[in-house]
Amino acid sequence: MALPLSRRTLVAAGLALPAIHVGRARAASSDRPLKLVLNVGLQTLDPIAGPSFVTRNFAYMVYDTLISMDSKGQFRPQMLEGWKITDGGMVYTFTLRPGLKFSDGQPVTSEDCIASLKRWGARDALGRRLMAATKELRQVDERNFVLELSRPFGLVLDALGKPSVQVPFIMPARIANSAPPTTPVKEIVGSGPYLFNREEWVPGERATFRRNPDYVPRNEPADGLAGGKVVKVERAELLTMPELATRAAALQTNEVDYLEYAPFDFLSGFMTNKDIVVAKAGGPALMMAALSINHLQPPFDNVLIRRAAEAAMIRSEVLDGLGLPHGLADPAQASLFMAGTFYASDAGKDLTGSSIAHARELLKTSGYKGERVVFLLPGDSALLNPIGLVMSDQLKRAGFNLDVQTQDWSSIAQRWIGRAPLDAGGWSLVPVVYPGFDMANPLSNPGVGYNCTGNQPYNYCSADLTPLIAQFEAEGDPAKRQGIAASIQKAAFEAATFPIAGQFSSPAAWRRELSGVIDFGLPIMWNIERKTA
Questions:
Q1: Can you tell me the distance from the alpha carbon of 533 to that of 44, in angstroms, rounded to the nearest whole number?
Q2: Taking a C-beta distance cutoff of 8 angstroms, is the pair 261, 382 a contact?
Q3: Tell me: the pLDDT tens digits for 210-268?
Q4: Domains of the chain from N-terminus onward
Q5: Residues with Cβ < 8 Å from 193, sequence gap 6 or more?
Q6: Which end of the chain has less neighbouring CB within 10 Å, N or C?
Q7: pTM here?
Q8: Alpha helices in 263-376 (DSSP H)
């Protein structure tokens, strides 16, 4: 079922060109909902059960976090009033802010926090490592709880404040305890700034929200994901529009307010349109294209075959396939931890994206016998579809017997986290894109952090990575962690855990009459208001 659009939007969609200029948009209405168009449709509501960015975006509206990252990358209290660190960094005592309430009317307690952290810690890479280093999580009273370590772990606050999948969102203990972390919870009850109108939800197309009147924001300015989450609109909608031209036209004609990712073919036109703002390139908007490999299924249980796929990922070709305007792509950068970040380095760079000829040589010496490789191609994603088309062509040129299967992203995501063999709906390769703050820390990086955890879809296990990761998580000196991170990157490239395929910016775009938009690399739906003429 298609989303209902006005006649003007449909006409504009048919005529939309990169440099299109439309007539004066309709005047904003004070009771009009804030409308955001997502890159892909919202199908799953549990932010812990799966690694979905669209679910993360949804969850930031209805849930809240103990700690949040600000625009400078610092971790600040959010649901917490604060914390104390004692016993040489081995004991953390956390105190909740008073007056926090879930959407079912019940107060938020330390019991809820402990249950939520345990569920998250059984699923997330960084969370699993934190839980492995934790001796005990114990409740002191309704507002205070303690995390006591069994061994040094220098990234406790980083873990609890991680900004992207999977985020340690807090839910009631009764719900957190109702389902294992791989099974979606049935109730959506949070303490976030919005309330979800579940009865109006059309999976994959539309989700609607209303302002949470009981939410108590921090008494400080919004800053990145931190600070006061003040909602200045009464209603909001998350929409899906599969056609990129339709998305562009809807923004140009003021049918919608915000595009999570501006279609690249329309960016030049947006940049010269006085009614549209395009987010700044770089910073949190930096993205990394990568190839997710199923290490459990032949032929990719063979490291030489994985190395062949890694060699075939020519970054310049992948980024050219996106049709990016000048200045938004940087094919020269090949750090697993994103160029420009604290842990970025060139260690092992020559192992990635070397050439198709080198990929053929590796494949020839690997013992590959032409086994079928199932490549899942997202057909509905403005980012993943063009990236996947180029990757699949590169792999075919390298000599892989590729079976390209095109589906919508939500269907692929369900297959991606499964363990079925190829003949029973399994998969071999999936193109993926991750934002910079997911890639910047080795313990949260999808190409490193899940090593030997058995956590789908990140099912790699490198014996060389294991001791390096242990050193990294125990080291308290940031300068020493940098050196360890370089060794981790080289080992990950040698094991071809998660071949990278190019760094680029994918900026959002929104109507100029919106004020207070926080540009942080993901849609932040608080602090925004619509200026009236």
A1: 38
A2: yes
A3: 999 999 999 999 999 999 999 999 999 999 998 999 999 999 999 999 999 999 899 99
A4: 32-63+181-279+507-530 (3.40.190.10), 64-176 (3.90.76.10), 284-505 (3.10.105.10)
A5: 61, 64, 211, 212, 215, 217, 229, 230, 231, 525, 526
A6: C
A7: 0.85
A8: 267-271, 303-312, 315-321, 356-366
